[in-house]
């Protein structure tokens, strides 16, 4: 393969990863890392470094729209970023000190868990009373948002801020360790623990992912894990694919697509686990 | 990156200070992403324009894919740009992309200070401190 062919191939794979990632709501990172390591034989450290860059690009692009629409809760985001940045630095620091085989094993596990989590249907009763939370009151985290589907402005209250901080530290740690956005974990923490509406959770997660990823990327860049030759086509490709995916999102039969991709994700997760096991 | 619908009841109020901050943060994010990708693209074009052998030779790929000689300190990036090195130009784009959320946090501090919200000024300053620390930690060999 010539360097030009590699660049074009990495670009096309990254478009596909960003596209599929945005359809699944997973972000491109969790798909682009196996594509780079398994198909293009890129060193897993460079794959993680390139992925974290693409994560910043896609989440910043999406957040630009959500913030404008007052869908992201900025105060909740800023509050939780204390925990995600601390976690991300811990994870990124740790990743430099463990062997690549362990990274494959951890990645395969997280990927399998993300896929299984997508099988679950969220049937929480949104009318149940929200327990009072002193931190949320003191920091004025409660807000309202406009739901374009119903045309209603919905007020909501935030709870369990302390638990949210702990979960966000873990989400930041996974993001820093593996170079992914860990958006699924962030949404879960806000949606289930803190009781933010699902759409607000997704929009706020996107807004936070960029800052979490920047903390990890700082460590990776200074350490020399962000190789410009690999990061350039990956960042551009994932962003392009994610933009295309977000335009298509409303127009496809999402249940069928999700079912198909969950199987694909599980197969890739198994492949990553095998790679880690075989090279241990 | 969709635009706000014109009948949006929350985001449409131009006099709301909260919404002014939101518009500004949105602009920062969008501009940062577009500008950094433009620089990354420019660097990639320079790379292939300078190295015609990258188009037909198979021998350099392993070197490019695994070498650890590309610039990864701010000083080395700036020196490299001065010499017209393509990987340094791409690194400027990558650094701008990493800096985009950092700038967003820094501007948020000013916005909270303007609203006299001391607690959030402190919280956000802590986040900015962690982002700066991340760079120092990586350089320390983390």
Supply the key terms:
heterodimer; A: 280 residues; mainly alpha; two-stranded antiparallel sheet; 11 helices; B: 142 residues; 73% helix
DSSP, total strands of chain B: 0
Largest interface: A-B, 69 and 79 residues
On the 0 to 100 scale, the average pLDDT of chain B is 84
Percent of residues in β-strands of chain B: under 5%
Q: What structural category arises from helix and sheet content of chain A?
A: mainly alpha
Largest sheet of chain B: none
- What percent of the residues of chain A sit in helical stretches (DSSP H or I)? over 70%
Helical stretch count of chain B? 6
Gross morphology of chain B is: elongated
Total domains of chain B, how many?
1
Order of helices and strands of chain B: HHHHHH
Q: Give unreliable regions of chain A as ranges.
A: none
**Radius of gyration computed on alpha carbons of chain B:** 20 Å
Sheet-strand content of chain A, in percent, reads under 5%
Task: Explain this structure.
- The complex is a heterodimer of chains A (280) and B (142).
- Chain A is mainly α and 280 residues long.
- Chain A has one domain (3-278).
- In chain A, 74% of the residues lie in helices and 4% in strands.
- Chain A is built from 11 helices and 2 strands; from the N terminus they run ααααααββααααα.
- In chain A, strands 1-2 form a two-stranded antiparallel ribbon.
- The two termini of chain A are 28 Å apart.
- By secondary structure, chain B is mostly helical.
- Chain B has one domain (19-57, 70-139).
- Chain B has 6 helices and no strands.
- Chain B has helices at 17-50, 53-56, 61-66, 74-82, 86-114, 118-139.
- In chain B, helix 1 (17-50) runs antiparallel to helix 5.
- The longest helix of chain B is centred in the N-terminal third of the chain and has 34 residues, at 17-50.
- The model of chain B has no long low-confidence stretch (mean pLDDT 84).
- At the A-B interface, helix 1, helix 3, helix 4, strand 1 and helix 9 of A face helix 1, helix 2, helix 3, helix 5 and helix 6 of B.
């Amino acid at each position: 393969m010539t360097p030009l062919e590699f660049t074009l191939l990495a670009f096309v794979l990254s478009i596909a990863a960003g596209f599929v990632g945005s359809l699944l709501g997973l972000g491109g990172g969790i798909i682009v890392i196996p594509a780079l390591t398994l198909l293009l034989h890129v060193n897993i450290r460079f794959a993680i470094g390139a992925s974290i860059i693409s994560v910043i690009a896609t989440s910043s692009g999406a957040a630009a729209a959500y913030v404008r629409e007052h869908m992201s809760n900025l105060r909740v985001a800023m509050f939780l970023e204390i925990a995600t940045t601390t976690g991300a630095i811990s994870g990124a620091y740790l990743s430099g000190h463990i062997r690549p085989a362990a990274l494959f094993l951890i990645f395969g596990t997280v990927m399998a868990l993300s896929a299984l989590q997508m099988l679950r249907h969220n049937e929480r009763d949104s009318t149940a009373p929200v327990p009072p939370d002193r931190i949320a009151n003191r920091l004025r985290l409660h807000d309202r948002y406009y739901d374009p589907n119903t045309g209603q402005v919905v007020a909501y209250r935030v709870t369990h801020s302390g638990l949210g901080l702990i979960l966000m530290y873990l989400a930041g740690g996974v993001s820093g360790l593996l170079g992914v956005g860990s958006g699924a974990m962030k949404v879960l923490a806000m949606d289930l623990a803190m009781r933010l509406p699902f759409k607000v959770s997704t929009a706020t997660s996107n807004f936070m992912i960029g800052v979490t990823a920047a903390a990890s990327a700082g460590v990776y860049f200074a350490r020399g894990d962000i190789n410009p030759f690999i990061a350039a086509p990956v960042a551009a490709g994932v962003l392009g694919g994610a933009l295309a995916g977000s335009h298509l999102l409303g127009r496809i039969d999402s249940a069928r697509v999700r079912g198909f991709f969950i199987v694909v994700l599980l197969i890739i997760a198994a492949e990553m686990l095998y790679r880690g096991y075989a090279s241990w | 990156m969709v635009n706000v619908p014109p009948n949006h009841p929350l985001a449409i109020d131009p006099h709301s200070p909260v919404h002014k901050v939101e518009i500004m943060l949105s602009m920062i994010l969008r501009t940062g992403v577009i500008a950094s990708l433009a620089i990354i693209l420019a660097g990639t074009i320079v790379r292939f324009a300078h190295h015609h052998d990258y188009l037909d030779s198979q021998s350099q790929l392993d070197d490019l894919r695994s070498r650890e000689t590309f610039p990864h300190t701010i000083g080395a990036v700036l020196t490299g740009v001065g010499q017209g090195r393509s990987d340094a130009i791409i690194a400027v784009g990558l650094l701008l992309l990493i800096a985009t959320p950092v700038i967003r946090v820094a501007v948020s501090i000013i916005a909270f200070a303007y609203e006299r919200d001391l607690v959030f000024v402190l919280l956000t300053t802590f986040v900015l401190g962690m982002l700066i620390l991340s760079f120092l930690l990586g350089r320390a060999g983390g």
